[in-house]
Amino acid sequence: MRKMYINGVQGIPMVMFAGDIDENVDFFFGEAERFPLLTAEQEQTIDQQKWDFAHQALLQLVKDPDGKRYVTEVCCAMLEQPADIEQFAQRNHYFTLKRDLKAIANSKAWLTPTQALIQAIQTDAPETEVLRRIEASQWPATFMIALAIVAERACGRKRKDTLADALTIWNANWQTWAFQRSTDLRRDLMPPVQGYLAARDKLVMHNIRLVYKLSRENQNRGIAVRDLVQEGIIGLVRAAEKFDYRLGFRFSTYAYNWTNQHIQRVCEGNGSLVTYPTHVTQEVNALYRVRNEWIDKQGEEPSIAELAEQSGFSLDRVRELTQLTNLTVSIESEDDDDASALPESALVDEAANPALEQAQSRSLQRLVERQLKQLDRREQFIVTARWGLDGRPSRTLAQLADQLEVSRELVRQLEKSALRKLQVDSQLNEAFKVLSA
Q1: pLDDT tens-digit profile of 260-274?
Q2: What is the DSSP string of 203-228?
Q3: Residue 44 binned pLDDT confidence (cut-offs 50, 70, 90)
Q4: What's the CA gap between 183 and 144, in Å, rounded?
Q5: Is this prediction's pTM over 0.85?
Q6: Fold agreement between 278-322 and 356-436
Q7: Where are the domains of the chain?
Q8: What is the mean pLDDT of the chain?
């Protein structure tokens, strides 16, 4: 038997066998009955402890002379030099960091308290005043603990944390920050960090049966129960990290949406060789629900216009969504337009002339670059980045939206507008006709 802890939450080991998965999941959640459901008062007490420990961790950090400089530099960086998605080899690290920093740096409600905290730290305000400013800053508890964990690592303690990893990718200097009192600081930071983690894990373990319930409800959707359990626990941990008892909600209510969302995302992304963004999958599912309801009532396939009217999507969006299915075909299947043509006929031609193709490609690239100058600055940037015309990997709408600090929908509209302008360009059309002949 091998013990495994999910997402760093210590408590009940999840037993993984190669045999009957359902029995092992039942065993795991049977053991979870040792953790009864919490009352509203108990939830409030535990979450208050979690926030108190997070505040104490940051306070201990700024009490250290080198820690004060470290926190000040991080604060100035997030206000003046936001992280760039291009710095991160793995996008999940960037979005983990952005998730917490965006609220602090971009919200006017949080900007002033953050600046006040920096001022208190820089002017050596009394400890009680610094603690008051920390509490008023409303920073996410995960961010305060991540700062402490980065400092712990620099002082020689190894501790896992995804947000701390993202911070050190953003600025590698923080990972090796020189703390002169490293032994004392490591000792001072350990109690609040450990206390925060214990309070978070307690919220998780006393609500673990919610994961069991939702996993069982979705067990017939083609996903192994243990996979649903693991995703559900990730959502539950995230809920425990974000929960704030001061808003007046019950944690069990708050955690339901997070847990269910993670499980539904796994279920919605299953069964297709092509993986779509979650919001696209949800739109496709909604469209097919409308289609099936129409067929049940009318007994016939609805038209595109009827689907658009019933679903609330535009005609163009319905056409796009209906084209997202059946994208994979056999290499020996016939082409609808040419019954004698097979997909295998589109494979690489061994007799092709590479030198000629390279010359044509360079010529076309120069033409495209020249014609792109007709677009405005943002349109040029979007088309170049989306299609990798600058020699770099093509970037997604989400990446470009973040770089331009606009919505993904606006990026999509700008790209569509730019491509429409290029589509009517006679020189480009003529060049593509010559190359495709």
Answers
A1: 988 888 877 665 556
A2: HHHTTHHHHHHHHHHTTTSSS-HHHH
A3: very high
A4: 20
A5: no
A6: yes
A7: 6-37+206-268, 41-203, 278-322, 356-436
A8: 78
